[in-house]
Amino acid sequence: QGHSKVALSLIKANADVNQQKHDGVTPLHIASQNGFSEIVEALLEARAEVGLLSESGQSALTAAFHGGHRAVMSLLIKSMGGRIVPNTGSVVSKTGSANFFDELLSGSALVEYRLSQRLSSALCKSGFVDSRAALQSAVADVLQAILQNRRSDKSFVVGSYSEGWGNNLKTLDGRTDSESDIDVMSLIPGRLYHLRGICSADCSDAKEHVDYINGHVKIPGYASSPATPFHGSSLKPAVDQVDASRLCRYPPIAPLQPDRVIKSNIPQHLLESLRQELLASPCHVVHAASPGQDGEQLR
């Protein structure tokens, strides 16, 4: 109904911004159709899926267009990377017809836009949605806490399972397949490497300095075998046990470099979350090397 304060309160309370009605319509559809730009902006900031389609095949962008809400259209197009039209601030239809988008989108751009809508809709219907990814990531956090409480070594649940997107590639219903492994990383006690020219002044007296090149550190003498697999069953998913060594800090992360931040479409709150994560979580290297570099590098 356009009550911005109520909508913002619900979003802050972690309401599902992608909840669909029986006809597939989402809050973003409704806000876009009615021109509620403040609510649209808040929903987009909360990672509402722009590509979700209603049962009639309508996206939030088409809903905004049919309502004549140019400010909302501009917000939606910007959230998709700004690739839909060259000038989102002055969108004018030449004919006033329903083929407006065909006028704006031509050739490969039109094909890309339509394929993107279909892909996003298919993924969401299959279960690849933010809420399920967040749930899986939370399960991984709980599993990690249990492992750290019960094991003597420092164990971490890492990889695609902990990140929420890699549950399995066999089924898309959110269930963990027996062959969908969970990576459990254990830090080797007492082994700490320092990145030459990157680590802080506090590490100046450290003995084990290593060179960092393109995602790998040069450390000879280790076979390239990053994990010990434990096969799964109907009662327990597969697990990859990964032994790793600690680095004193993370190397430079590309999305956080000044030249990348200026051009980035990544929301500021996500960039800040990434910065905080780099301070809070341990960086580690595993026994894996580039092709032809076995025994000479760690990844």
From TrEMBL:
Residues in ANK repeats: 23-55
PANTHER family: ANKYRIN REPEAT DOMAIN-CONTAINING PROTEIN 39-RELATED
Keyword terms: ANK repeat, Repeat
UniProt xrefs under SMART domains: ANK
Residues in the signal sequence: none
Organism in which the protein naturally occurs: Macrostomum lignano
Pfam families reported in the protein's UniProt record: Ank_2
SUPFAM superfamilies listed in its UniProt record: Ankyrin repeat (SSF48403)
Domain of life: Eukaryota
Protein known as: ANK_REP_REGION domain-containing protein
